[in-house]
Amino acid sequence: DTSLAEVNSFSPSVPISPSSMINQYKFEDGPELRDLFITVDDPESHITAIETFITYRVVTKTSRGEFDSSEYEVRRRYQDFLWLKTKLEEAHPTLIIPPLPEKFIMRGMVERFSDEFIETRRKALHKFLNRIADHPTLTFNEDFKIFLTAQAWELSSHKKQGPGLLSRMGQTVRAVASSVRGAVKNRPGMFTEMNNYMETFNQKINLLDKIAHRIYKEERDYFNEMKEYGPIHTLWSASEEDIADSLKGIASCIDRCCKATEKRMAGLSENLLPILHEYVLYSEILMGVLKRRDQIQGELDSKVDALANKKTEKDLFLEEIGKLEDKVERANNALKADWDRWKQNMQCDMRSTFTNVAENNLRFYEECLATWETFLASQTVDLHVEEDSEDRP
Predict the structure, then answer these.
(1) Residue 109 confidence (pLDDT)
(2) pLDDT per residue as tens digits for the range 193-238
(3) Same domain assignment for residues 210 and 322
(4) Are the beta carbons of 325 and 300 closer than 8 angstroms?
(5) 280 plus 340 within the same structural domain
(6) Which band of pLDDT confidence, cut at 50, 70 and 90, is reported for residue 84?
(7) Which segments does the entry list as coiled coil (predicted)?
(8) Alpha carbons 305 and 63: distance in angstroms, whole number
(9) Pair 135, 205 in one domain
(10) What are the C-alpha distances in Å from 219 to residues 59, 66, 190, 224, 296?
(11) Ramachandran class of 10: left when φ > 0, alpha when ψ lies in -120 to 50, beta otherwise
(12) Is 322 exposed, middle or buried (0-12, 13-18, 19+ CB in 10 A)?
């Protein structure tokens, strides 16, 4: 999603390390085979007597035959995106549905409805829809097509056609009952390995997310202190005529380092923090998908146990078991294929993100080092000039 070519560029005069990672890694996209392009932009605020909310423009361009037009433009609010995610989970319980930004994303770092909050959410919603569009199965979901094409009143009407309250309650009760049964007896080893992997991944990604937020906070505190540090030297230079130029030079260096720090903070908040938090949400989604697969397996196990205890109605049980075996096999195949796809995307995202951060750090320290080296070189020249003038008769 973020190419290394988009790394913040600094002054051309700043030296670039020959071992710079940007010279060692090159990530290239595969051949362009997409036939569905989605853009989320143009956030618009709506204030009513009941609530205040934001809508986003969703523009879709496609060459698919099942669409009546090649281009659509609709407006959607967060609740609409949440409805779509719910429908996808209902239709594809063992596929990995991309995460949505939370109701209050990056809480404590930005204010709700601020420009920064809205832009952060817009990017996340844009990524959410495009991840669905790139998915080999989800992209052809009928609710997804309706989300992209239906006008507001049409979408509202379609939402009312969903399962009723009692049906949803029944699904919830079955899910709870299945979870209470305990561990699945006949879970294939592959899915046990997936569970173990996700437990470790969940711990590590949550820890990385917390550390990254702490680093960002410390960087922000350092930046705020630096903004006060530079002007002090400028004020000091007014009362120290002999070293005024040196003090002003230090103030200038601090100011340039302050700007470089601000760029690095922007890189953290735009690239590292959102990716890490996205995969925190992904880890929760994956653990939910694995539980739903286990629920299907549990239904099959319970029927097999019931058949062993009941000799009557054997044919009926055999028929139900056959259907459940097919359901489990479909769930296993869907999850295995999606697991490989998700893991490949995750590794690519992490590699690109951490390489991006490392490259930004290299550029930051190279710029600051060059700034201070230039200042020291100028002071050395001044000292030599003063010594030469003192040696003259």
Answers:
(1) 47
(2) 999 999 999 999 999 999 999 999 999 999 999 888 889 988 988 8
(3) yes
(4) yes
(5) yes
(6) very high
(7) 307-334
(8) 50
(9) no
(10) 37, 50, 42, 9, 48
(11) beta
(12) exposed
